Fold this sequence. Notes:
It is a single chain. The chain is an alpha/beta fold. 44% of the residues lie in helices and 15% in strands. It has an 8-stranded parallel beta barrel, surrounded by 6 helices. Helix 1 (17-29) packs parallel to helix 2 (48-58) and helix 7 crosses helix 9 (183-200). The longest helix is centred in the last third of the chain and has 18 residues, at 183-200.
Amino acid sequence: MSRRKIVAGNWKMNLDRAKAKELTAAVAARVAEAGATELVLCPPATYLETVGATIAATKSAVALGGQNMHDKASGAFTGEVAPAMLLDLGCRYVILGHSERRTLFGETDAIVNAKTKAALAAGLIPIVCVGETLEERESGRTSDVVATQVRGSLAGLPPADLEKTVVAYEPVWAIGTGKVATPQQAQEVHALIRGLLGTLASPAVADKVRIQYGGSVKPDNAADLAIQPDIDGALVGGASLKADDFLGIAKAFGG
Length: 255
Ligand code: PEP
């Protein structure tokens, strides 16, 4: 089964409106460099509209994604953003359960699961993040930790929803540290995740799920990751803030 590669830029809480516009225009103008790879830009919520409008003005096939959302449709949730609000701004994707959300904002697998279901119900494609800490890896618990997160975050999804969902394997020790997992370390966990998805739904469904790697992906390490059979793209933090780097990564996956 050939899965369409997907490279998403998680801008986190960076840039200002002018820089967001500039970066979007630079990426949109060069989208052809990504070949068949799907590109997604995930700016801060405040710049979704600007980034969406910039993409629309260039008529390029870059997709828009949120970095987080609430699981409820509306109501007294000060400071939160509802799924339909993201959709309204033109989002196709939403990152959920990023390790920074899990660690700094207390998001549990149950919370990520509720958000994942709400995203799918609203018509958004969730990018569900999982990954072990350094301490968990060093104590030999990577498989258990990742399997628990996958089971918990994706619990109860019907196969038709599961096959649309994107999973991002992001070892916490590799995020923003410059320490990338080796292609073999990443492939091993990706294969484990796909095997688990097979037991949750069916091997045919698991075969359709795109699994991104995230953690210090740069243009110079992307090619070795891209040739692994179960790595279907990248979720990129730091390197997504520079058009050359982001497109260099996309190119590695798009060739
Ligand atoms: C991320 O935060 O999703 C990420 C992978 O960050 P970085 O690429 O900077 O390691």
